[in-house]
Amino acid sequence: SAVISQKPSRDICQRGTSLTIQCQVDSQVTMMFWYRQQPGQSLTLIATANQGSEATYESGFVIDKFPISRPNLTFSTLTVSNMSPEDSSIYLCSVGGTSGSNYEQYFGPGTRLTVT
Amino acid sequence: EDQVTQSPEALRLQEGESSSLNCSYTVSGLRGLFWYRQDPGKGPEFLFTLYSAGEEKEKERLKATLTKKESFLHITAPKPEDSATYLCAVQAPGSARQLTFGSGTQLTVLP
Fold first, then answer.
1. Measured between beta carbons, which residues in chain A are less than 8 angstroms from residue B100?
2. What is the mean pLDDT of chain A?
3. What ranges in chain B are assigned the alpha helix state H?
4. Cβ(B33)–Cβ(B42) under 8 Å?
């Protein structure tokens, strides 16, 4: 399985500011995803980070609010823009299996964001 | 739309008291069903993937099974360190490979 790291591990931010979260993988992966886990809730997919093209966003999530970059096969960033207290969540990066027939997904440790 | 329902929401067991967690799913063609363990403040830890009805997988005290409508995670003689939230997720066919998660079962094993 891939080793995934995220930075920062946690942050406290003021309303109206933006935060960029980094996701680094120790091997090249085709699929990278960003999820949100609100307090006491399960995981919700924000978007699929596509290498070399725009991210694919799920219903309810837009690029202006959650811009994503994927410059190569081992790295991605998610920005939470113009934050409000409702954005307080854990943000998780995940990666798909490294081989064509491996559909497993592995998650990073998460970034705990608190917006005041 | 893919749906995943987990039950119970919370489960308290005495150490050594075996039990099962349920994951019911509705998906238009199942590529895979995933079980994860999540400890507080951490990302989900991958446990199992099941691909077809009748398939079973085991890891230490955990055993996952799959039917056409649901999956069970059996916990045999649990220990306090098994306390965590257990998440179930499904993956539909297609190139996207994203997961749809259930709400999880919070397991507490008392010494």
1. 45
2. 91
3. none
4. no
Q: How far is CA A58 from the centre of its chain?
A: 13
Chain A hits for B89, CB-CB cut-off 8 Å, are 43
Backbone torsions φ then ψ of B80, nearest 5 degrees = -55, -30
- Residue A102 clears pLDDT 70, i.e. is over it: no
φ/ψ of residue B60, rounded to 5: 55, -115
CA distances to A1, A79, B76 from A113, in Å: 26, 12, 36
Give B 36-55 residues with CB within 8 A of chain A: 36, 41-46, 49
Please give the C-alpha separations between residue A35 and each of A9, A66, B18, in angstroms, as whole numbers. 15, 11, 32
pLDDT tens by residue, A32-77? 999 999 988 889 999 999 888 889 999 999 999 999 999 999 999 9
Q: Do residues A22 and A71 make contact, with C-beta atoms less than 8 angstroms apart?
A: no
Testing the interface with B: which of A21, A43, A91 to mutate, by most B Cβ within 10 A? A43
A86 three-class SS: helix
| Range A102-111 average pLDDT | 87
Mention every residue, 6+ apart, whose C-beta is less than 8 A from residue A20.
Answer: A77, A78, A79
